[in-house]
Amino acid sequence: MRSKRFMGIAALAAVILLGAGAVTASLGGSDAKNATTDATESAGRDLLLTPEIHTDSASSDSGGAPDTPAEARLRGMSTEALKVSTSPVDVVTSSALPVPGMPSRVVKTATLTLDVKRGRLDDVYSSVLGTVESVGGFVASSNQSKGRAQLTMRIPASRFESSIATLRAFGKVTNESVTGEDVTAQFVDLESRIRNLRTQEVVLLDLMRQARTIQDSIAVQSQLSGVTVQIEQLEGQRRLLDDQSGFGTLTLGLAVVGVAAADPSEPSTLSGAWTDATNAALAVIAGTLVVLGVLVPLAVIGAVIGVPVWLMMRRRSNRPLTPAPSI
User: Fold this and answer.
1) Domain count across the chain
2) Residue 261: strand, helix, or coil
3) Of 32, 100, 112, 200, which is most buried with the most CB atoms under 10 A?
4) C-alpha closest to that of 210 among 63, 61, 18, 81
5) Which of 150, 151, 148, 173 is nearest to 255 (CA)?
6) Among candidates 196, 168, 40, which has minimal Cα distance to 112?
7) How far is it, in rounded angstroms, from Cα 117 to Cα 259?
8) Based on the domain organization, do 111 and 256 belong to the same domain?
9) Using the 8-state DSSP alphabet, how is residue 319 labeled?
């Protein structure tokens, strides 16, 4: 009986010890989890504040000129504004923002040459203009001569291929080339840089409102002007890419079958005669100027030397003769 009672007491003690160990392990895991969470949040705050600190240390270690009082105050204002705007809630919210999708952007260029029948050049020309206008495009430039016509057109990218297919039916295709350049990466890069500069602009405007001295206002205004110039330049590049990718460029050439193209190196008889006459007249004028350029200096030199000699000879000829004395 005593041995059974002793074994029961030992089993009860073992159960109590196991329960106490489980409770201790649970409390220890909770504390470790809380410590890990606190360390992560602290690291996140330090990471958000690190760029400003690194910037200051880099400027001081680079051996450059020390900051002016206005720049020091500006940096202090920036640091305070950053500290206020970097709460853990803001960090979680910003990291959860979805990345907007960007459609592909391609700069399309094409060249198309058609042979048309005699007497149909004007009709085909008018049909081409109507087709381009119907899809929302426009003619950037055009040139029409005897038996020839060339048009440079801007066509919406969404209707570019279908418009080329329509224009092929207006004649016999003798030459065709289509190229495309993907500029999506450039467009995304411009969008990202503009977005970051806009954020800097908002921060600088907020610092401008917080400035209390003229020196602070001048320092903020200088940085704000630089950011504004960069934004305008990048927006200009973005508009150019948007126009190039939004409208494709098509160069269309029309040629009447059997009509030889005029050779610009062989002018007409009338224009050749006019050119010869003009060249001859210019040659005569040039020769006259050369002769005058030689004779005028000689005449001046002759006048300088000859006029005094002539005057002296005239005076001697006009002098009265002295009568000979009588003996």
Assistant:
1) 2
2) coil
3) 112
4) 81
5) 148
6) 168
7) 10
8) yes
9) S
Between CA 325 and CA 327 the distance in angstroms is 7
- For 188-307, list the strands marked E by DSSP: 247-256
Measured distance CA(2)–CA(82) in Å, rounded: 75
Tell me: the pLDDT tens digits for 139-170?
999 998 888 999 999 999 999 999 999 999 99
The CA-to-CA distance between both ends of the chain, in Å, stands at: 207
Identify the CA nearest to 124 among candidates 248, 261, 256.
256
> Which of 243, 159, 242, 230 minimizes the C-alpha distance to 201?
230
Range of the domain at 78: 69-87+103-260
Which residues lie across from 155 on neighbouring strands? 248
Phi/psi-derived region of residue 136, left when phi > 0, alpha when psi is between -120 and 50, beta in every other case: left
Instruction: Please tell me the pTM assigned to this model.
Output: 0.48
Same domain, 109 and 53: no
Domain-located, residue 193: yes
- Is residue 132 scored above 90 in pLDDT? yes
Residue 279 corresponds to which amino acid?
Answer: N
Answer yes or no: do 191 and 235 share one domain.
yes
Cα separation of 113 and 257, whole Å? 12
